[in-house]
Fold this sequence. Notes:
The chain is α+β, with helices and mostly antiparallel strands and 422 residues long.
Amino acid sequence: MFKNARIRTKILLTTLIVAFSISFTVYLVLYIVSSAKSEEVTQHIMENSRENLTALVKTIYQSCATADQVLTTLLEVRLKQYKKIISNRGNIGLSSEKVSWEAVNQFNKAVSTVQLPKMTIGGSWLGQVKLIKEYQAIVDDLNEKNFNFTIFQKMNDAGDMLRVATNVVNDDGNRALGTFIPATNPDGSSNHVIRTVISGNKYYGTAFVVNDYYLTIYEPIKDGQGQIIGMLFTGVSLSAADKLRKSIVATKIGETGYMYVLGGSGARKGYYIISKDGKRDGENIWDVKDADGNLIIQKIIEQATNQPESSVSLINYKWLNPGDDQPNDKIVALAYYKPFDWVIGAGTSLSEIDEISIILNTGFTHIYIYIASVLFFILILVYLFVSWMSKRIADPISYATNVLNDIAKGDIKSAMTKLENK
């Protein structure tokens, strides 16, 4: 009986060791493969997030380019229409008679009094029409919504340009008559519009106009001797690109991500042009720092404005949201559309991407547990089956061994008895 037990034990242990080895090997292989896949998928999620942010910024960049092209074409058409109206009335010139103007610098609002020759069209003085409800020749002859027109007169040798006829409206609701564009910006740099026009060329692009930024065309006005005496302006406020603005505001990136636009240069450098939900438009965030104390907005604008045209770059930084104990890692895709002077950003928190990875890894962990449970259940079934089989195998072997032992001892009677009882 003792031998029978030993045989059964050997069969059982051998089978269980083999079964356990196979199960452990299968589990280990599955674990290694799934872990590698988990890491691969996590990396893919991160890369896909970067690609999505980049794609969003590229889409808005292209939308800006399309809007720019459409608006510039319309501005060219409007300018031709205005020039035709002017041509029908006669040439623009200067009278020998002078008139006094209270000239207001559109940037710093400084007021000065100047005496200038009357600017005429076909010999008729343009006048000094201040009220928007009163008719102003030329600039009111095309009633085009969103588009504005101005006739400028050169004030001095420096090239300061005075608005002597305009349908651009001041903050008080009247025409911005008497405001002027100085040849020198508040920071001491030369004004790009004035510099371009005084050199005899057209200026295309964004410019500050009284109280807003416009997409503009400025063209020199020359007298009969070819001397520049002023300039024509036609422009459209970038707020007219309302659909583009709305699409930027409406774009959501995950739970917390969003798109925004910052001013890239000049007076509006570091200002929100388009903010999250439009709630902080016009706010100066130039000196805002990230969680590490870095001047992150300055870094964003510097990186965007110095990268190749139409390219998109990425930047990472730590940001502490109000009410949070720990800063979040953020990733932002950046592009700079120079004609609008827009720094376009699309950002999200890396914690959202990490949450996806955590969910993924949790799923793999559940799979590991499930596989381990199945293998353990299989081992139990193997144990029960081998126990039953080992008994069926061990009993005949034990019986035959006992009979052979009796014969070997010469106890034929005992062997015969065992055979008869079998």
